[in-house]
């Protein structure tokens, strides 16, 4: 299993404010609609190669941070995390272009596990 992306995702009811902070830190909107459910989301890239994703979630009472981990084999990564005590999040999102699920560590941090499907229509 290969990790292809590893960066923070900030979930906020005020994503415009979050994006503005990171733009002032030198990040630029790299593209729109990072695949996190069907919510408005942005990927921001720093000139030095760092990424942060920001997701608009109106019902979020406070900002949350998740670690985004894209892999080339969802099932293998899922088994590794389960073996280390991670619990499955509420559901798997299995779409044409990606399969993803939040996984919660025994101490409470969350990994957003994602596999992009290479041959989707």
Fold topology:
Layout: E1 3-12, H1 15-24, E2 28-32, E3 41-45, E4 51-56, E5 64-71, H2 74-83, E6 87-88, E7 93-94, E8 98-104, E9 110-116
Parallel strand pairs: 1-4, 5-9
Antiparallel strand pairs: 1-5, 2-3, 3-4, 6-8, 7-8, 8-9
Offer a few descriptive terms.
alpha+beta; globular; nine-stranded mixed beta sheet; 121 residues; 9 strands
Number of helices: 2
Would you count the extended β strands for me?
9
Structural class by SSE content:
alpha+beta
**What is the end-to-end distance?**
24 Å
Low-pLDDT segments:
none
What's the SSE pattern?
EHEEEEHEEEE
Helix residue percentage = 10-25%
**Computed Rg:** 14 Å
Large-scale geometry = globular
Mean pLDDT: 90
Largest sheet: 9 strands, mixed
Q: How much beta, percentage-wise?
A: 35-45%
Quaternary structure state of the chains depicted? single chain
């Amino acid at each position: 299993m290969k990790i292809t992306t590893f960066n923070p995702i900030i979930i906020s009811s005020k994503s415009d404010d979050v994006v503005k902070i990171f733009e002032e830190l030198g990040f630029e909107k790299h593209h729109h609609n990072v695949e996190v459910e069907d919510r408005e989301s942005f990927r921001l890239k720093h000139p030095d190669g760092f990424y942060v994703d920001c997701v608009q979630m109106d019902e979020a009472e406070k900002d949350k941070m998740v670690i985004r981990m894209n892999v080339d084999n969802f099932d293998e990564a899922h088994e590794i995390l389960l073996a280390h005590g991670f619990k499955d999040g509420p559901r798997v999102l299995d779409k044409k272009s990606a399969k993803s699920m939040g996984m919660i560590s025994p101490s409470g941090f969350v990994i957003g596990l994602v596999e992009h499907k290479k041959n989707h229509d």
